[in-house]
Amino acid sequence: MKKENRFVKDMTEGTPYKLLLSFAVPLLIGNIFQQLYNMVDSIIVGNFVSPDALGAIGTTGSLHYFFFSLVAGLSVGIGIIVAQFYGAKEEGKVRDTIGNAVWILMLCSAVMAMIGFFLAKPLLILLKTDKEILGAAVSYLRVTSIGILCIGMYNGVSSVLRALGDSKTPLIFLIFASILNVILDFLFVLGFGMGVVGAGIATAFSQFISAITCMVYAYKTNTYFRLRKENFKLRAAIVKKSCRLGVPVALQNALIAFSLIVLQGIVNSYGKIFTTSFTVVSRIEQLIQQPFMSLGAALSTYTGQNIGAGKVKRVIRGFNADTVISTLFAFLMLAVFWTLSPYIVRIFGDSPQVREIAVDGLRITSSFYVFLGMIYTTRNVLNGAGDAMFSLFTGIVECIGRVCFAYPLTLIPFMGKYGVFYATGLTWFLNSMFSLIRYKRGKWKQINLVRN
Predict the structure, then answer these.
(1) How crowded is residue 258: how many other Cβ atoms within 10 Å of its Cβ?
(2) Residue 308: which of 167, 440, 165 has the closest Cα?
(3) Over residues 52-56, mean pLDDT
(4) Tens digit of pLDDT for each residue in 419-430?
(5) CA-CA distance, 283 to 423, in Å (whole number)?
(6) What is the DSSP letter of 10?
(7) What are 391-419's pLDDT values in tens digits?
(8) 26 to 168, 169, 171, 234, 306: CA distances (angstroms)
């Protein structure tokens, strides 16, 4: 292996536990720092601006996720293709895929950024956003929608790097960008008094710096990124495979985002205090989901490379290892939230009403974390193998679960408004069962993008 590609890792050889953990730990650290973009915004705004401002940020989360879902899905699809070509030792195809990815992601990011910017206000009104926080929410969503261009660039580069087994390079620049984000948050929000708009600008600019620096570094240290003119030529086979894998994942993300939007509408109907409490729970859970996400991403790369190399039995060993690790973490987090959640939620502000609701919400959803971990494990094995169409099905299940459970559960007397938290947990349970059944049936074993 060339010295320049020292972070590139072949996952078709070695112990699954060691490979998955060594890949996932840098990814986990990076994901945690990435979550700090929103966490820092929420903490600073909640403590130094107002609870209403925190609610304004929180009510935009599901919409921003919806706008970004197509870009994220295509990044996943591209990463799967790169992983399988790398596992099959098709270096030329790896470079062609990276070159085509530039065009695909640039176009999609630009389109989704414009949609998010221009539809921000009508969609927030449709979600019954409290009038007192509507203006701030619109401004924040418009700024972060422009930032989709930056996130799209970074996600594309990091997805390719991870497909090549390199989870360390993205980490370096996420840490740098997160530190920059904290500095800019204090500057724009407190120094310039720009409120939620300042928080949005700080986040978008930090993401831009992360994307640019990561691309430059990847070009200098990874030979797969040194593309020639012919690598940028659009190739129908690669574009078709990218869409075949990426669009189902994107639709899955979009359906999940839609279900979260519906859920947010129900949450908003209970007033700004409950909206703020729900925001606190969401922010904490975004952070807690990162280990599941990181292990899942590691398993997806591991699966892609081994499927490309024709080593199906190694994929099964990786699935078993990932299941054990995620289950242990789920039980650990259950214990933490049932004992320490009153202290954890305090970092988001000193409102007693907000704290009381948030503590109960965390205790409810943490009871279902085992199923959440199973979703990430099974979904990423299937995605890594190229069975991405099932991602669309899981998106449908998650959408139906949240939409159909949320409102009816709030009508049950002993649940009331807390039904929205139970709806999330029951949705995780349903999705995990469907995903596990799909994995056990074994259709994914016959899929190989390199051969087909």
Answers:
(1) 20
(2) 165
(3) 78
(4) 888 988 998 999
(5) 18
(6) -
(7) 788 888 888 888 788 788 888 888 888 88
(8) 6, 9, 6, 33, 21
